[in-house]
C-alpha cells in the first residue's frame, strides 16, 4: 500500500509541475533575431526602457536602451540568442513601473526527435518481433528518456500542452512495454 501512494505522488507531480510556469513572451529558435515586447498597462507611460538581460548561463548584460514605442507597447530588437535556455529581461516605464519577463531560446530539435523516435521505437518493435525482451527493454528505456526530454524541452520550438501530452504518451508507451519486457524476462527463467 505504501508503494501505491508513492506512485500516485509521482503521477500527480508529473501532471501538476508542467502547469506551473513563469510568464514568458515566447519561445524562439537559437540564433534568431527577436522582438522583445512589453506593454505599459496603466496607460500613463510615454516610453519604456529595457534595463538588462540575464542570459541562461547567469551572466547579465546592461542595456539601458529605449524601446521603440507603438501605442502602449514597446519593442526592442535583440539578436544575441546563441545560448539555449531562459533569458530574463527587466524593463521600466516612464511612470516608474518596473517589470521582469522571460523568453526561451530553443534549438531546432525536430530532426533529433524524429531520429530518436525511429531508433527507440524501432528497437522496441524489433525486440518484440524477434521475441528478445532484452532488446525491447533497451528500446523502452530510450523511449522513456525521449518522453522526459520532450516534456522539458518540447518539440522543435513548440512547448505547450500538446507537446506535454505527447511526452506523457511516449513515457506511458515506454513504461508499458518495459514492464511487459521485464515480466517476460522474469518468467523466462
Q: What do these coordinates show?
A:
The protein contains four helices and eight strands; from the N terminus they run αββββββββααα. It has helices at 2-16, 110-129, 133-153, 161-188, and strands at residues 24-29, 34-39, 48-54, 60-66, 68-70, 73-78, 85-93, 98-106. A five-stranded mixed beta sheet has the order 1-8-7-3-4, with no helix packed on it. It starts with a helix and ends with a helix. Residues 11-22 have low confidence and may be disordered.
Descriptive labels:
3-stranded antiparallel sheet, elongated, alpha+beta, 189 residues, Immunoglobulin-like, 8 strands
What's the overall average pLDDT, rounded? 81
Major sheet, described briefly?
A: 5 strands, mixed
Shape category: elongated
Quaternary organization = single chain
Number of strands: 8
The fraction of residues assigned to DSSP E strands is 25-35%
CATH class of the largest domain: Mainly Beta
Domains (count): 2
Low-confidence stretches: 11-22
Strand order of the largest sheet: 1-8-7-3-4
Terminus-to-terminus distance: 28 Å
Q: What's the CATH architecture of the largest domain?
A: Sandwich
| Number of H- or I-type helical stretches | 4
Q: What are the SSEs and their pairings?
A:
Elements: H1 2-16, E1 24-29, E2 34-39, E3 48-54, E4 60-66, E5 68-70, E6 73-78, E7 85-93, E8 98-106, H2 110-129, H3 133-153, H4 161-188
Parallel strand pairs: 1-8
Antiparallel strand pairs: 2-6, 3-4, 3-7, 5-6, 7-8
Amino acid at each position: 500500500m505504501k508503494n501505491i501512494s508513492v506512485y500516485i505522488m509521482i503521477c500527480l507531480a508529473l501532471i501538476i509541475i508542467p502547469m506551473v510556469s513563469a510568464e514568458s513572451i515566447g519561445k524562439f529558435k537559437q540564433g534568431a533575431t527577436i522582438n522583445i515586447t512589453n506593454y505599459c498597462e496603466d496607460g500613463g507611460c510615454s516610453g519604456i526602457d529595457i534595463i538588462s538581460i540575464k542570459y541562461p548561463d547567469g551572466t547579465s548584460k546592461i542595456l539601458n536602451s529605449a524601446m521603440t514605442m507603438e501605442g502602449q507597447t514597446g519593442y526592442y530588437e535583440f539578436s544575441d540568442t546563441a545560448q539555449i535556455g531562459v533569458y530574463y529581461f527587466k524593463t521600466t516605464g516612464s511612470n516608474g513601473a518596473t517589470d521582469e519577463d522571460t523568453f526561451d531560446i530553443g534549438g531546432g530539435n525536430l530532426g533529433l526527435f524524429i531520429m530518436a523516435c525511429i531508433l527507440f521505437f524501432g528497437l522496441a518493435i524489433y525486440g518484440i518481433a524477434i521475441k528478445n525482451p532484452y532488446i525491447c527493454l533497451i528500446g523502452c528505456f530510450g523511449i522513456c528518456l525521449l518522453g522526459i526530454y520532450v516534456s522539458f524541452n518540447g518539440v522543435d520550438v513548440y512547448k505547450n500542452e500538446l507537446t506535454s501530452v505527447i511526452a506523457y504518451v511516449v513515457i506511458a508507451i515506454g513504461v508499458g512495454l518495459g514492464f511487459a519486457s521485464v515480466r517476460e524476462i522474469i518468467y523466462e527463467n
